[in-house]
């Protein structure tokens, strides 16, 4: 087998010929961009407390506009060429990722204030990810390191159309083992917006930590943002996935979903039928967003709804596009939540978010491809030839 080089790390540290029994080799074919968590065996759970990040882990934060992301962070290994299988790929680019972490970094890249709460392994990759947060000015006070589990790895096959297939190494990975007593509740209560997905609901102890974090944010008057990130193969069944995703549905103030998720959650409903979409609009919801890839997005509030066109680009890797969109809209809402009541201003903010997503698919990897505010504004206002 040829030697694979991934960024600055030669791939000799992972033995493909004789994998360790502790490494679980699982392949899933999905069209989504973020990391997912299969159920670990109870015998493989570690009842240990992760340690906090070395030093103070603090980045500059503006508390009045702080967005705190909760969930998973991992390493994506992305092929340097598209349209080949993982086995046939000549090399991989090492790229930090994980949906909630992508959102946190995306907001910081756009000039906003963000923090990340989650758990990685007490290993080289875990500390590399901590450095990524620091380098991007993301507050990492809530990050923990697990001495008994590894940082999750995901190998990504890029098809010729930029869509992906994932292969995960985890058994279990550290993000699944975050415990409630490891949460930084002070950081959660400082947030203006608390953002999360559904992946952390799949297994314990992270599920209990997730529920406790959401409750603390809700009790503190923090706005709750939810992106379910459906990963159907990782749940015990379709019914359990639907039940799990909907179990916290009515606590959220802002929800972002895809067309596929609409059909799934409504048991086959037409994702383009406004009446079907409105079935997912609960009484306390302020904003429901539906992403449509290159076509843009739709928005629904109690008083109005509409569609905002996307920016057409040549897709190289769609990993992280939805997270970049979320970062784009949350960065705007963190500055002014009244945008939700003003349709014209909301549409402008969604145009900005659509461009964030579009620019991200033009490069490989999630976090490496997240755009700066300057890049987004340049794309928004460049002359049409």
From TrEMBL:
Pfam families linked to this entry: PfkB
EC number: 2.7.1.4
GO terms under biological process: fructose metabolic process
Assigned GO CC terms: chloroplast stroma; cytosol
Record's catalysed reaction(s): D-fructose + ATP = D-fructose 6-phosphate + ADP + H(+)
Protein name: fructokinase
Originating species: Lupinus albus (White lupine)
Residues in the signal sequence: none
Chain ranges of the Carbohydrate kinase PfkB domain: 66-372
